[in-house]
Design goal:
107 residues; alpha/beta; 4-stranded mixed beta sheet; globular
Length: 107
């Protein structure tokens, strides 16, 4: 993940995340997300971004990344690109565009 060039931030992208339809509604997705966020916290990551369902991710604390003046390199609706601070006020000043590893373009 890259946010502009002047910032030295530790951000992580939470993706891709899916649960097979026959296994949904069993809290598996929630457990995966919570485990991923805990791992990010242990690794010293300051914030996490996600490209996902706007009805699902806010329950974990994600809000539209545009509220932090952060955009996605992909042309996606504002409400599906979200961010969450793991460290309080971590995204207070940064502004810019998140660039993903080229492998994400293949998904």
């Amino acid at each position: 993940m890259i946010l502009g060039t002047a910032h030295n931030l530790k951000l992580m992208g939470l993706a891709p995340m899916t649960v097979r339809p026959e296994n949904q509604k069993q809290a598996i997705g929630s457990a995966l997300i919570e485990a991923g966020l805990k791992q990010c916290e242990r690794a010293g990551i300051g914030a996490v971004v996600v490209l996902g369902h706007p009805e699902y991710y806010p329950r974990f604390g994600f809000i539209p990344a545009s509220q932090y003046e952060i955009s996605c390199e992909y042309d996606v609706p504002d409400e599906v690109f979200m961010a969450m601070e793991i460290r309080s006020s971590y995204l207070e000043n940064p502004r810019g565009t998140i660039s993903y590893h080229p492998a994400f373009a293949e998904l």
